Amino acid sequence: MEDSQVTDDQDPVVSPMSAMTTTAPSPSPPVLGISVLLLVILAGILGNILVCLAVTQFRTLRTVANFYVVSLAVADVLVCTAVMPLALYQEATGGMWYLPGPLCKIWGAMDIMLSSSSILHLCAISIDRFNAITKPIKYVAKRTAKMAFTRIAIVWMLSALVSIPAFFLFQKENDLCVPNDTTNVYAWCSSSISFYIPCVVILIVYFKIYNAAKRRARRVIHPGPVCTISANIRQHAAVSQSSFQDEGRSNQLSSPAIADRPDSVQSVEPVPPGVPVRDVVPVTAMLSTRAEAQSRISLARERKAARTIGIVVGAFIVCWLPFFILHSIFNPMCSSGHEGLSCEAVPTLYRIFTWVGWCNSSLNPIIYTVFNREFRQAFKKLLKCRKN
């Protein structure tokens, strides 16, 4: 009898991503709650499929930067199709797992891999955005589809490596799918790799992106001193301007060369003697009307894209931070028998916070729709079955 009492009082060890961590069945939620969660799952599937279709079908969205967005959408679709439905099944059965034991292992590993993939994708997107803003000339030359696919493959490989131990830790015991990690070592390591370290990197990178965008905005708004060039140089300048504009069209999210090299205008040779004054024109008269306009447009697109991804990152952190704080701080303290904590509420909070984290997979398409006009227009055309 004493052994049974000790087992019942012991707090369960919780997986990094799984909500169903209690050792006893939880009360079944009402039909309304099940219906709401089902709508969240369906919205996530539809929204992320629209993201993938928009990038593949519309040329304006078919950029190297958006390849990361498509891969992130694929991870979110898998969360909505492979992880959340089984969690909803557990909610309907009151926490019981009547499915085969191997499926419990696969579900636990998929949960951790896909959730880790989301934050690692956001980390890769942040680094790509930072390089595009701070090194527009050098980075654009290397910013190819092959490089993007290589980074995406690395993200998926790291996510798979993090999830391998979970496959062996999850077990079906007494019709419950629970992890067996009595030391909490894997919980701490996976939380650091899957959330804390990428979050620190993302926050640092976006702080630098913000400062770089401010400097570039000042450079465009306050150009350098006006210089003059002779009329026989006009044609050369016009050709350079045309080449610059063609380059800008080939990569809409890249930064203009003129905005990044303000001293290139001052390097023009002085006006030769004997050239009539009427043949001498200011450089800004030639470049500001078109090149500076293109510069402002490119910079605006860059900042808008960075803002959209920043909102996606912020939403991810807000959705998952409560879970990881609960998991990495409060759960180990409760498992070690720490006094003064209300550990009875931990299992319920785990279920709530994990569903909030999973709901982030349905939130990203909404963010794209609200804050990105090109995605919004593409979604409207896709829903109306209109061609590109």
Automatic annotation (TrEMBL):
This is G-protein coupled receptors family 1 profile domain-containing protein. One of its GO terms (cellular component) is plasma membrane. Residues 242-255 have a biased composition (Polar residues). The chain crosses the membrane at residues 31-55, 67-86, 106-127, 148-170, 185-209, 309-330, 350-371. The keyword Cell membrane applies. InterPro entries: Dopamine_rcpt, GPCR_Rhodpsn, GPCR_Rhodpsn_7TM. Residues 1-27, 242-270 are annotated as: Disordered. Residues 15-27 have a biased composition (Low complexity). PROSITE patterns: G_PROTEIN_RECEP_F1_1, G_PROTEIN_RECEP_F1_2. Residues 1-11 have a biased composition (Acidic residues). Residues 47-368 form the G-protein coupled receptors family 1 profile domain. GO terms for molecular function: G protein-coupled receptor activity. It is a multi-pass membrane protein. The keyword RNA-binding does not apply. SMART domains: 7TM_GPCR_Srsx (SM01381). Belongs to the G-protein coupled receptor 1 family.
